[in-house]
Amino acid sequence: HIHSTPALTAPLPFGNVEEQFGSLDLIAASNDSKLSVLKTIFGHDSFRGKQVEAINAILEGKNCLIVMPTGGGKSVCYSVPAIVSGGVTVVICPLLSLLMDQVNMLRSKELNVCYLNSSVPQSDRDVIVHNMLSEAPDYNFVFLTPETATSSDIVDVLSKMKSNGTLTYIVIDECHCIDMWGFDFRPAYGNLGMLASLNCQVIALTATCTPRTEEIILSSLNLTSATTIRQTCDRRNISLIVKPKKGDEKEQATNMIVNEHNGQCGIVYCTERATTLDISYCLQTKGVNATYFNGALDPYKKKAKVSYL
Predict the structure, then answer these.
(1) CATH numbers and ranges of domains, the chain
(2) Model-level pTM?
(3) Which of 61, 260, 295, 306 gives a 20 to 30 Å CA spacing to 99?
């Protein structure tokens, strides 16, 4: 639902970053630049899990496949090296909702971020591309959908940025989608390997990656030599329980929530948009405070529901 989402294209003044944190160049030049960026910009006192290993590999110039569980801090793995190294980091993200989550997160840190997709008006697109092609682009991060990233005009822009020395990293988020979608549903994901011709360092991120999927990802991206950093996805606070379906699945699901999880919070994932509405209505009739969320909602309703949550 790319076309229904308004663009957020106006760049933040770069001075905002320096006023709040001091010069990014000074932060990056400190004795422990990684930790300085983590503390000063992201507000964390220490790295966790495999973050340091991943960041060091990136700063050493290695192409990386980083496998970390959801909530494991994958965004820190590319954001910190991007700020330390300077220049522009391009992030390719499959879903507009995920893309906007990351855009808003980085903007909340007063970093200069923009995005390009088919919903961005041509006039705004021209301004962004002009900035990207300048000798010193304002943007720290540029977010693209796979379709935009593989379009001939944007590939040409990225090639010129690489020649200018302003393109630092290409990040491919949710890279397991190459295996899931790259062969039919989202062929642009399968075409991301063309970016290898830019000779730019690539960072691929995912929380879901079997050895077979890893092989497909690296082959599709033409990463013949890449460092894989894998953090266990076994989250001991989460368990999976399978219950056989009996009769009306909606009635069964809502009864289970009411009887076994009364007063608790939870998320019900549905395979169809209409089902999200049906389940929320069923729960409401049983006295549960419930709402629904799906991709068909307009941006204002989405924002209202997220704020409510």
Answers:
(1) 26-230 (3.40.50.300), 249-307 (no CATH)
(2) 0.74
(3) 61
